[in-house]
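Example 245, ligand 2-phosphoglycolic acid.
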Amino acid sequence: MKVIVTKSYDETCTVIAEMIRDLIARKPDAKLGLATGGTPVPIYQKLIQMNREGQIDFSQVHTVNLDEYCGIPGTHEQSYRYFMDSNLFDHINIPKANTFVANGMGDFEANAQELEQKVREGGPADFQLLGIGNNGHIAFNEASDHLISVAHVENLTESTINANARFFEKKEDVPTRAITMGMGDILAAKTVVLAATGLAKVPAIKGLIMDDVITTQNPSTLLKLHENAVVVIDKELADAVGYQG
Ligand code: PGA
């Protein structure tokens, strides 16, 4: 696992957007695994800008998103389909048919199976973008005594519900379940890039980069098993966890 320390979160986002730009230049029909949450928003803004400037052509790119809440439709402002459309897809030249976000309505188990099929279709993702939960979760694979390898329905922990309540009018509105890629799905990607910023992430990032322990209580630590995993953090977060390179 490689750790990159940047001067600022803005630089983190530039570094990651440039990785994606360079990948698509090499492989115009690249398959990207994408993430939602606060962390990727400025990365997506940079990709939009690069697309406007003609630096990236998304016309042959395919994307699969990590997860989706159960019980809210793609038209709902807090759904991850809505998030991806409004923060990225509506502003770049990607055909919507090439983008997949699991359906959060109807038969959740069947929707999880459909997500698993999309993860496998056309082979592993060339690039998987990840954020990290305050509790070390990756996608919605929550800290637990066991983890699930394939796409599945996950019960969200109190910590995740509290962290995501900021996006909803009230905490009670936060869905309590989600459809998520499993850990095996994520580790199958050829390159996995995790971005983190902010002091709320200190315990999770400490477990990820400061020792050699792998534990299901911090799902991100499984990235230590991946040959091409990259963690990009800014100096503020690196200093807070005591990382010195
Ligand atoms: P955040 O969420 O980017 O909103 O901090 C990250 C995550 O929960 O994976």
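Summary: The domain at 2-237 is CATH 3.40.50.1360 (Rossmann fold).
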